[in-house]
Task: structure prediction
Amino acid sequence: MDEGAAGQRTPRAATRAILNELQQLVTEQRNPRTRDIDLADPETILQWINDEDRLVPDVVRGQIPCIARAVALAERSLRGGGRLVYLGAGTSGRLGVLDASECPPTFGSSPEQVVGIIAGGAEALLRAQERAEDREADAVGALEALGLERRDTLVGITASRRTPYVVAGLRHARRVGAATVFITCNTPPADVEADVVIAAVVGPEVLAGSTRMKSGTAQKLILNMLSTATMIRLGKVYENLMVDLRPTSQKLEERSKGILMQLLDVPYERAVTLLEASQGSVKLALFMGLAHCSAAEGEARLTSAGGVLRRALRKEAP
Result:
């Protein structure tokens, strides 16, 4: 019997319910185009994988209106002193942590502004912690430890749509009043509530259930779009150049000088002088060069323009 005396589900019934749910997921279905992949030669295997990967960008493109709404929430949070928080398990969690970790060197953002949380903690980045995705209390605990609040935006990432860790994190975020975004590669369930739902349904994987493939690619594209568009809106970019990057390596130091030389049409030595005067801030150095002003005046005008360089250039000096 699968039902207890009081109508409660037995452990067997509960696990069978999970299997039934999994069997309904697109990401768990068998791909009819790759059923003979185990008989294929290496080149054919790679061609079939590439054929499937090529389907992903068009699916993501169809979600642009939803991604744009997520960008608006993230921008509002970051402008209001809040954070953009990614939450996921397994591949989804690693992609969130990766995107968060790349924001400071790329855009000069504080490491506290974009945060990645993965089920199982830091160890899960290097070694799979498969059971961690089932521990709902861990998600709540991690978000409580972070101090998630109303001015934050939480992005829950799960290919399957059902990951308990992520679903519990979204519920907690809604309880505290934070904005919520749900990224999935399946049709979202009716019982998962979020301010924005991004459903990139890329179809069955090359290998059934291997969501590190097309689903992971879709999630990577979406997270890149979300963080990059948000940072552009926050003024981290001038034209299509990253002007808030942190020169934390020799490569980035030289890239910073190259940006100034290109945009200001000045020699190397002048770029060095401007960067020294701006204490390494490429954006401030660029503004000083374009507006022919001091560092103090440049800082004031950029601040009044919300950090957006083009907006600051259109305004009169304070």
Q: What stands out?
A: The chain has two domains: 56-233, 237-314. The chain is about 50% helix and 10% strand. The longest helix spans residues 214-233.
